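Q: I have two molecules that I believe assemble together. Could you output structure tokens for the complex as a whole instead of separate predictions?
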Amino acid sequence: MNINATLLAQAVVMIVFVAICWKYVYPPILEVMQEREKKISDGLEAAKKADDSLEEAKLAFDKEMDQAKTEAAEILKKANARASQIVGDASSKAEEEAEKIMTSASTSIENETNKAKEELRQQMSEIIIDTTQKILGDEISPEKHDAILKKAAEDL
Amino acid sequence: MAKELTTQSYIDHHLTNLTCGQLKDGGWSCDPHDVENMTFWAFHVDSLFWSIFLGGLFLFLFKTAMPKNATADTTPTGLQNFVEMSIEFVEDNVQSLFGSIKNTLIAPLALTVFVWILLMNLMDLIPVDFIPVLAGHIAFYLVGGPDHAWITGPESFYFKVVPTTDPNITLGMALAIFVLTIYYSISVKGPKAFISELTLHPFGKWLIPVNFVLEMVNFIAKPISLGLRLFGNLYAGEMIFILIALMLFFSSIAIGVLGFGLHLVWALFHILIVALQAFIFMALTIAYLAMAHETEEH
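A: Yes, here they are, computed for all two components at once.
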């Protein structure tokens, strides 16, 4: 084991090699590695974000769906109520109309009856007067006995 | 080399570096017989060759693993996966020790240290004779002859393959880290805090010399232990490989077969040491630099 200038030469060689590695070899490799590392971590983060937003979208979708369902149910309910109301209104109106028609019909029947009665009474009194005239001759004239006839008609 | 191959010469051969250096009289030589006469300015050519080759291989692999058009959108394939895995591993370790402190040098430094040492340690798993013998033949073929009298045959050419079994290499790396530690200690904490850290405790300002000696031991011990730990582990591993290889020298077939078995077992176990020591070196590098960034809490 003899120490000689090899030692110094090796020290110098080492410094040169380290310097070359430091300046030319190491940085480009490290740069690529760090870049890739960053890219991967960015990618993972983006994937996580996408996952989160998908979850969020699902939740929002579910919520919207629920709301739509309740709304639809409400609308249906309202429609049903409205329909039954319309039916109810219509039937009550129809009943009313029917009653009205019945009333007016009965009224007109009564009027007609009265009118017929009146006419009948008139004709009867005329017939009676005619007959009485024939029996009594000309003693009785409608002009002379108008008052009596009128009273008779009223009594009938 | 006409010398007979003995156990001693075999081991020596595997533990000797190919050394080129300045001789005491001023000339330069690569002759192993001159090693004793060399000054400090001698270089282990084999260690440095493998160290630079494997360091270059690391940089080349990591540079070319990334396709030119690689972006965050392209799927990583093949080698790119391996490279990214290594970087992630290093980043995790740096993150756990450094926390919030931002220093872009630490991670590339740790990566270089880890992969480079791992590659150098892995050379240990190549059977001990393959590369030295090959190199010996190539050297003998290329330059053997009267001009280089010391290369008398392929086996006379020393060629150590595992750089981390050379203390110069491991301590050299530790030295580079030591320098960085001092640099960051001063630039992050400021020279005043750095000096007071070395002198004002454990005993307060009245015992500055004692404090300084104690802290200095602590300070210097870190790089030395860092370098020697790696060297020791790999040297011992290499040594055992050599000893196992020696079993083939015995004429008994049984011992030879046992040697093969042992080699397999030790190689499998050694994979663990190879990776573990590279990791320990990296972790301690990060830890020492993290300490340099920490402001005192005493």
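A: One point stands out. The first helix of chain B runs from residue 7 to 15.
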